[in-house]
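Usage

Read records sequentially. Each one opens with the input sequence:
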Amino acid sequence: RSRAETRHWQGPARLASGEEVELLANVQDGPGAQKAAEAYAQGVGLFRTELCFLDSTKEPTCAEQAEKYSRVFAAFPDQKVVTRTLDAGSDKPISWATLEEEANPALGVRGLRTTGIDEDLFTRQLDAIAQASRGHQGKNWVMVPMVSTLSEAKWVAKLIRERGLTAGIMVEVPAAAIMIDQFLAEVDFVSIGTNDLSQYVMAADRMNANLATYTDPWQPAVLTLISRVAATGVRLQKPVGVCGEAAADPILACVLIGMGVTSLSMATSAIPSVGSQLGQVTKEQCERAAQEILTAQDSGDARNIARRALGIN
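and closes with the structure output:
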């Protein structure tokens, strides 16, 4: 029955109690964005720009970057596109934006920290994003990965806004989640990257299969931080999205909406199953599940609590 409902789901996403839910797509290029647009995505919640350049041996020019970015904007001419600046390093090495042979790359020079190699890498990319977004009638949002300090948040927000774009950051470093009140005061929105947030909260490399139990986004410590970030967003009236694998889990998606998350971004293939599940629960059920899972002892317990609260067998 669940598979049949997923096959026939056509969007837009709406809870059984009537509230709309913004479901966005994670994309890496123009063709992927076009596919997402044809699959009921309401926009792009995570444009992974670094995946455009994994095979490049030198930094593309501003014009070359803009040409690639513009294809994604063209797929959603009137809708939101959230572009993430380079998340190079760790498991996504780019020759011209990554240090060689770091002892622990997951805790090393990645994301925004590559500005320590060449600060202009960042500003040149912002110029390219601004150029590509000209003529795009939808929301032009830019978010920066691995922001860890308030001074970094202030700096990137200033540079993004100077280019006429909406400024945001990823919440994946625990420091940003712990001090979310101060960080949200500096930016226009945040997006929670649950994959990296889980590995940093649980001190477990997410590329290590032996530690998969620890990097499960259902871990109570991870859920507690996500709940804190979402609640702060509600209080300060600023958008809080989720763009990690947690958003693609139909049950956890309901919990995230109950916490106050304003948008969910996922692989295009996951949108129908998430949308279908959201349509079977009410806002009250989502909020109850979000509250009750905070008492969970472990990830399995959290899953069971959520299913009971949502009335899912």
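Summary fields computed downstream for this record:
- The first strand starts at residue 22 and ends at 27.
- The mean pLDDT is 94.
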